From TrEMBL:
UniProt name for this protein: Pyridoxal phosphate homeostasis protein
Lineage of origin: Bacteria, Bacillati, Actinomycetota, Actinomycetes, Micrococcales
Pfam families, per the entry: Ala_racemase_N
Cofactor: pyridoxal 5'-phosphate
N6-(pyridoxal phosphate)lysine modification, residue list: K40
NCBIfam families assigned to the protein according to its UniProt record, in alphabetical order: YggS family pyridoxal phosphate-dependent enzyme (TIGR00044)
All residue ranges annotated as the Alanine racemase N-terminal domain in the record: 34-228
UniProt organism field: Leucobacter ruminantium
HAMAP family membership: PLP_homeostasis
Length: 231
């Protein structure tokens, strides 16, 4: 297949090297870290090209777009990670293609997913808000345990861990925000020892996330290039 997205292979290689280097810096095994390539706003052809380059994990943040790409690329059997705010009324549909949902942020969403028809449980990450702004997405840290208990009671979900987006750099340095996230992860593990995953780290802060113990990186633009305008 001709390369339709110039530079993609090189950028992917650069990020993979960056991830390995950041792991080695803090004496972590790169094998412990899953790189999810965030392909939002990019066409299915870019996802197909990533698959040819060996990518299996892709992230999307809008239901309709994700649903369409997952349908178009069904034959590739990719692991689709849903990482954006999910409307309760779309939850059952997202459960049809998403193997992981990183944005479990309220009990009503868990209740909706509880009624989904799934072949196997969906990997669930409870999203916590690292800022004081409720509009940023994620549950308030004080709600973490209650939400996690609810996920644990739900047959269609398997609690994997915690997820967060760093505050803006001018609000707080990523390293200090991710240190707090590591503390929330410990709280979660004292409730559910298997829920040890930490989904954190994007283009500009993945090294800090790795240093704080992230197991799932969600990296978009460093690999895909600049995002086209949303359609
Ligand atoms: C877009 C997005 C990413 C990837 O962001 P980049 O800065 O392009 O790496 C990661 N996580 C979430 C929740 C996103 O919406």
């Amino acid at each position: 297949m001709p390369e339709q997205h110039p530079g993609l292979a090189e950028r992917l290689a650069t990020v993979r090297e960056g991830v390995s280097a950041a792991c080695l810096d803090v004496s972590r095994d790169p094998e412990e870290v899953t790189l999810i390539v965030v392909t939002k706003f990019h066409p299915a052809s870019l996802v197909a090209e990533l698959a040819e380059l060996g990518v299996r994990d892709v992230g999307e943040n809008r239901h309709q777009e994700a649903q369409a790409k997952a349908a178009e690329l069904a034959a590739l059997d990719l692991h689709w990670h849903f990482i954006g705010q999910l409307q309760t009324k779309k939850a059952r549909q997202a459960a049809q293609y998403a193997r992981s949902i990183h944005s479990i942020d309220r009990e009503r969403l868990v209740d909706a997913l509880a009624t989904a028809e799934v072949e196997r449980p969906i990997d669930a990450f409870v999203q916590v808000n690292l800022t004081e702004d409720p509009g940023r997405g994620g549950a308030a840290p004080e709600d973490l345990e209650r939400l996690a208990e609810r996920v644990l009671e739900t047959q269609t979900l398997r609690l994997r861990g915690i997820m967060a987006v760093a505050p803006l750099p001018e609000e707080e340095h990523a390293a200090s925000a991710f240190a707090r996230l590591a503390g929330y992860s410990e709280r979660l593990r004292s409730l559910a020892p298997d829920a040890a995953a930490i989904s954190a780290g994007m283009t500009h802060d993945y090294a800090e996330a790795i240093a704080a113990g992230a197991t799932h990186l969600r990296i978009g633009s460093a690999i895909t290039g600049k995002r086209p305008d949303p359609r």
